[in-house]
Write a structure and sequence with these properties.
The protein is α/β, with parallel strands linked by helices and 344 residues long. The protein has two domains: 62 residues, Alpha-Beta Plaits (2-Layer Sandwich), CATH 3.30.70; 257 residues, Aldolase class I (TIM Barrel), CATH 3.20.20.70. The chain is built from eleven helices and 14 strands. It has an eight-stranded parallel β-sheet. The protein is globular, with a radius of gyration of 21 Å. Bound molecules: phosphoenolpyruvate and manganese (II) ion (MN). The site of phosphoenolpyruvate has 10 residues, from loops.
């Protein structure tokens, strides 16, 4: 159920409807849009009677939401959401580059990477301190020490930090250091982790599970929004297919599909999406061409010595070329007004 307020509705009108929803034992989610506010209702086990709200001042209509997801849907909010990570708007006019190594390895490595990606034009720094590795014997990340080094890199460069929380146990600590908390592909349906992310004060970068459908992806985001955190950035990072020429199959067609259904911004990870350094540049261009809000790219000062994902990590000068070429494509699209046609 969705309560659509009139364009003239006052704060007091919205507040009154929210209190009514709470008095019924449900949770209100006011979502301000460009022309009007819609109030999503969650926690209701069955349909809510629209008649309960029709006589409230400022209410335009009470409508049923046709999709299984509500708060992530364009039915609740027609306009694109812009999520700010340390002041950097993701989903706005400008495309965003988040770049850095797969894992934080030591002070020199992360500082060198941070300075290099900043010089190339990145606005955000990525780097894992807690790594979800297939093998229990592989490098698992530096833990809190890695988070401290990321904070030092932020201090040195001003870049916002995106880093992963692999479970509920470490979430508090990751949230303290990060500007945006990543939930990785392997955890896309870790529902207790999603709920914890929904109670976070920081924005969340939610990566698509490697075998998830579009609906499962959006439902995972819905978990986060349903707990009150509306600052979610989606990320396509490739899915498993029968193909063996790449690590994953980067499903770029999910970008316009998400944009049609959801107001949340979606970025693309061409590094995990291909698993091969030489594929990162062409797929980055394709991602921006199909309307992605930005990229998250693995960049390492010396990929041949990386402790994880070196074969898909770019050298800093290669990343600089990615930024330059992607900006040229974004500029061309903006010039042609193509981005406005994405949801048509
Ligand atoms: C990563 O970003 O390094 C990572 C592990 O990503 P994913 O969860 O997409 O595999
Ligand atoms: Mn990686």
């Amino acid at each position: 159920m969705l309560i659509v307020m009139t364009a003239q509705a006052t704060e007091a009108d919205i507040e009154r409807v929210c209190r009514k929803i709470e008095s019924l034992g449900f949770r209100p989610h006011p979502m301000p849009g460009a022309n009007r506010t819609a109030i999503g209702i969650t926690g209701n086990p069955g349909p809510v009677d629209p008649a309960e709200f029709e006589d409230f001042p400022g209410v335009a209509e009470a409508i049923r939401v046709s999709k299984p997801y509500k708060l992530v849907s364009r039915e609740v909010k027609a306009e694109d959401s812009v999520v700010r990570v340390k002041g950097v708007p993701v989903g706005g006019e400008e495309i965003v580059f988040c770049a850095g190594p797969c894992s934080v390895e030591n002070r020199e490595q992360i500082l060198e990477a941070a300075h290099a990606v900043k010089a190339a034009g990145a606005q955000l720094l990525r780097g894992g301190a807690y790594k979800p590795r297939t093998s229990p014997y592989a490098f698992q990340g530096l833990g809190e020490e890695g988070l401290k080094l990321l904070a030092e890199a932020r201090e040195a460069t001003g870049l916002g930090i995106v880093t992963e929380s692999i479970d509920v146990e470490v979430f508090d600590m990751v949230e303290d250091y990060a500007d945006c908390v990543q939930i990785g592909a392997r955890n896309m349906q870790n529902f207790s982790l999603l709920r914890r992310a929904g109670r976070a004060k920081k924005p969340i970068l939610l990566k698509r599970g490697m075998s998830s459908t579009l609906e499962e992806f959006l439902m995972a985001a819905e978990y986060i929004l349903s707990e009150g955190n509306y600052n979610v950035i989606l990320c396509e990072r490739g899915v498993r297919t029968f193909t063996d020429h790449s690590r994953n199959t980067l499903d770029l067609s999910v970008v316009p599909a998400v944009q049609k259904l959801s107001h949340l911004p979606i970025i693309v990870d061409p590094s995990h999406g291909t698993g091969k350094r030489e594929r990162v540049h062409p797929m980055s261009l394709a991602a921006i061409a199909c309307g992605a809000a930005g990229l998250i790219v693995e960049v390492h000062p010396a990929p041949e010595h990386a402790l994880s994902d070196g074969h898909q990590s770019l050298y800093p000068d290669q990343f600089a070329e990615v930024v330059e070429d992607c900006r040229a494509i974004a500029h061309l699209l903006a010039h042609r007004g193509a981005r406005e046609h994405v949801h048509a």
